[in-house]
Structure formats: structure tokens, C-alpha cells
Design brief:
Layout (H helix, E strand, L loop, with lengths): L3 H36 L11 E8 L13 E6 L2 E5 L5 H7 L7 E5 L11 H10 L7 E5 L3 H11 L1 H11 L11 E5 L10 E6 L2 E10 L2 E11 L2 E5 L7 H6 L5 E7 L1 H13 L3 H9 L7 H11 L3 E8 L5 H8 L2 H4 L3 E4 L4 E6 L6 E4 L2
Parallel strand pairs: 3-4, 4-5, 5-6, 10-11, 11-12, 12-13
Antiparallel strand pairs: 1-2, 1-14, 2-3, 7-8, 8-9, 9-10, 14-15
Helix pairs in contact: 7-8
Length: 359
């Protein structure tokens, strides 16, 4: 009897294994169907309160990172949507977050470095197909934005024809693909800023920032129903930017840790990659350290500081404190390191700031 028991148990296990293998397809189909019913065609933004909602669609840098897309912040202000920069992979992250592409009013470019705009073609494509646009997407940016937009339109022109032929003009509206560049230009006045968008209670202002030798870099401030957020783009430490951000609920600020970048550079040099080592030596002087970003937020009297476009982005929680350096001691408000999928919500006419991680 004792010998028969293990044999019987093995038989039961074998039968269960065979049943699982036979039923695996059925189980997979059920799981897939359930996921579709829960997620597809659902406007997740409909549950958000009226106010400003910032979607971190890209928190990374040009450095390889499987978890982070290139720099991108999307903003839903009431019923109007905007996307600020479109780094590589960011628009797919934005889709995963459930951003309502049919509400997209415009795209904005902080400057014309490739890592901030290499997803622009996909943004225009999704605005056209997923957003159902019948007119090109307005793309606001510095001098040269017209050249960038025209280049992407040309690159996607063959694809545009395929989609119209396949889906028909009722779905792929022929006039809706592409972008319409709207140049933001300034005088030489150092403290110049201006309103670049104003509609239905939403105001967006732009400020020139110092990212030399990159010309005409911009920061943006979005205001709606008593709430405000600021997006730095790439910039050196700037008290002018602090004044521009005065009283903001949230500042989204780029950050570079020079010690970590220095370590990367010295290691590359020691291993014979002098070109990459030179790049590591060059980049700290036109970015902002976490400590200086904290100083900006403190000077501005901001309620929260969210670091994005981090160089190098911390690869693990254990590294985050080292990346921040002394920043936590320099800012009294809420300090966060962003991740792709972060949603920051500012309900209208309130003091509340809600942080959520959508994936």
C-alpha cells in the first residue's frame, strides 16, 4: 500500500499537468478577453477631477534604459491635452497611461536636441489616427521647429498614403496627418517671457532658458483654474527660471548628477572609449544638478519638485538617494524622482497634489 501511494500521487500530478497543457490555450484566451473588456476603449481620464493632470511619459535620458523613455510630459488641463517634448518611446508610454489623444490640442518642444523630439513623428501619427484629427497638429517650439516638423512629415508621407488607402478617408482623414509649426521667438531681453497659448481658461507661457550651445531653449508654465505647473526642459541653474516658477504647485525639472556622470566618463576613458568619455565631460555644464533644482524650487516657493529627464536615471531604489545628493535638505516641499507612468494631479481650485503610478 505504501508503494502504491506515491505512484497514485504521481499519476494525479501527471493528469493535472496534462489537463493544464490542454487547457492552457483556453485559459489564455479567457485572460486576454478579460483584459480587453477591462481596458480597451475605456477613457480612463473621464474619472479624473477637473484640474491639471501631468503624465510622465518619459523620465529618462539618451542613455540606454529599458524602463524609461526619453523626456516627455503630457498635460491634461480640463478637457484640453498638450504634450511637451516627445523623447524616444514616450508616445507608446503615453498610450499605455490612457492619455486621451482625441483631446490633444498641441505639441510643444522645449528645444531641438534629438532626444527631445525623436518621437515627434509617432506623436503626429497618433494624433491623426488615435485622435481622429482632420487638421495637422500644431507644434509650438523655438526657431527651427518648422524644419523639424517638415522633416517628419516628409519621412511619414509614404506611410500616410498606405493608411489612407487601407483604412479609408473616413478613418484616416487625409488632411489630419502631420504638424503645423508655430515658432516661439523672443527678443534679446534676458527676462523676456510671453503667453504662447490661451484658450478656455488654459494659459501656457514660455521662457527662454540657457542650454548653450543649444540655441533658443524654452521652459513652459501651464495654468488652469488656480493650479500651475512648470516644465524646465534642459537648462543650467537659473534664478530667472525660479522667478518664472514662482508659486507653482509643481515644478518638473531635469537633473544631472555630475559625480555619477564623471564616474561614467572616467571608466569609459580607462577602457579606451575617448569619444564617449569626452561627451560625459561636456554635458554637466549645460544641465542642472539635483541640488540646484532643489534650490530653484525653494526660491520659487513651489509646493512640489519632480525630477525627470535624469542623467543618469537611477537604475534601482538603492541608488536614488545617491543621485539626489543634498537636494532633500535644500527644499522644504515634496521632492519626487519620477518614473515613466507617474501621474501628478492638481484638482481645480484646490491645494491638493496627488501622485499616482499607473504602471
Amino acid at each position: 500500500m505504501k508503494r502504491k501511494l506515491p505512484a497514485a500521487l504521481l499519476g494525479i500530478i501527471a493528469i493535472a499537468g496534462i489537463a493544464f497543457l490542454i487547457g492552457q490555450r483556453w485559459i489564455g484566451e479567457r485572460v486576454f478577453s478579460s483584459a480587453v473588456e477591462r481596458q480597451v476603449g475605456i477613457d480612463r481620464s473621464a474619472e479624473l477631477p477637473d484640474g491639471l493632470h501631468a503624465y510622465v511619459c518619459g523620465s529618462g535620458s539618451p542613455m540606454p534604459d529599458a524602463e524609461r523613455a526619453g523626456p516627455c510630459i503630457a498635460v491634461l488641463a480640463g478637457k484640453q491635452g498638450f504634450v511637451f517634448d516627445a523623447g524616444s518611446g514616450s508616445i507608446r508610454k503615453l498610450g499605455r497611461m490612457g492619455f486621451p489623444m482625441d483631446r490633444l490640442e498641441a505639441g510643444f518642444l522645449t528645444h531641438l536636441h534629438s532626444d527631445h523630439l525623436d518621437g515627434l513623428g509617432e506623436l503626429m501619427l497618433q494624433a491623426w489616427i488615435a485622435g481622429g484629427r482632420a487638421t495637422p497638429l500644431p507644434v509650438y517650439g523655438p526657431q527651427g521647429t518648422d524644419t523639424v516638423v517638415a522633416g517628419f512629415v516628409q519621412a511619414y508621407d509614404i506611410d500616410r498614403g498606405y493608411r489612407i488607402a487601407h483604412h479609408g478617408p473616413e478613418v484616416a482623414r487625409p488632411g489630419g496627418f502631420g504638424g503645423e509649426a508655430r515658432i516661439i521667438s523672443f527678443t534679446d531681453t534676458a527676462d523676456d517671457e510671453r503667453v504662447v497659448y490661451q484658450k478656455d481658461g488654459v494659459m501656457i507661457r514660455a521662457l527662454p532658458v540657457d542650454h548653450a550651445p543649444v540655441d533658443h531653449a524654452l521652459a513652459f508654465r501651464v495654468e488652469y483654474k488656480g493650479r500651475s505647473l512648470v516644465i524646465s526642459g534642459d537648462t543650467k541653474f537659473s534664478l530667472q527660471f525660479a522667478r518664472f516658477s514662482e508659486g507653482a504647485d509643481v515644478i518638473f525639472h531635469e537633473a544631472l548628477n555630475p559625480q555619477m556622470v564623471g564616474k561614467l566618463g572616467s571608466t569609459l576613458a580607462a577602457r579606451g572609449n575617448s569619444d564617449a568619455a569626452k561627451i560625459m565631460a561636456d554635458i554637466p555644464d549645460y544641465h542642472t544638478t539635483p541640488e540646484d533644482a532643489a534650490r530653484v524650487a525653494e526660491a520659487a516657493g513651489a509646493k512640489a519638485l519632480v525630477l525627470y529627464h535624469m542623467v543618469p536615471a537611477p537604475p534601482a531604489r538603492l541608488v536614488e538617494r545617491a543621485f539626489l545628493g543634498d537636494a532633500p535638505s535644500l527644499f522644504e516641499g515634496t521632492l519626487k524622482l519620477s518614473e515613466d507612468g507617474m501621474l501628478v494631479s492638481l484638482p481645480a481650485n484646490s491645494q491638493e497634489i496627488d501622485f499616482d503610478q499607473l504602471f
